[in-house]
Design brief:
Layout (H helix, E strand, L loop, with lengths): L1 H7 L40 H7 L2 H9 L17 E5 L5 E4 L3 E2 L7 E2 L15 E6 L6 E6 L5 E6 L9 E4 L4 E5 L3
Antiparallel strand pairs: 1-2, 1-9, 3-4, 4-8, 5-6, 6-7, 7-8
Amino acid sequence: MAHLLRALWGLPFRGAPLRAVRGRAVSGGSGVDPEDPGSLTKHEPSLSKGEWRRKLTPEQFYVTQEKGTEPPFSGAYLNNKESGMYHCVCCDSPLFSSDHKYCSGSGWPAFSEAHGASGSDERDASILRRVDTLLGLTRTEVVCKQCEAHLGHVFPDGPGPSGQRFCINSVALKFKPRRH
C-alpha cells in the first residue's frame, strides 16, 4: 500500500496546492448547522479567508481551509512517539491523544479514537464527521468541532475494539507533550 501511495503522490509537497485532491466535502446529515443554537458545533467567530491566510502557513491553510491533503509519509507527526495531546492548529482544541495513536502504514498519523470519545459515543469528542463525496468516493471527513477545520478522514479498518482509523494530516495538528 505504501508503494501505491508514493506512486500516486510522486511529486514533493510544495507551497502550491495539489489540485488533484482539492475539493469541498459535502455535509451529509451531520446534524451540524452553525446558524442553529442547538448545533453540535461550538463555532467561535469565524475568521475571513484573508485572516486564516495570515494566521496559518500556506500548507496549513490549504489542508484545513481548502480541504487539501498533505502527501503521504511527509508529515512531521507520522513517526512521533512522544506522549501528549494533538491539538487543532487553527483553534488549539484538543483532538487526539497519543494513547490512541498507532502506525497504520498509510502514510499519515493514525488514531483509533478521538479525544473525549467513549467508544462509539463521540458526543464529548472535539471532532465531527461529515460525508465527503470528492473524487466520486464516499468517505467520512473529520473536522474540528470548534472551528470546522478539515483534519482528514476516518475509515472502518482500524484496530479493535473501535475498528476505526482516523487518518489525520500532520499540518492540521499541533502536538503538546505530556508534562510529567
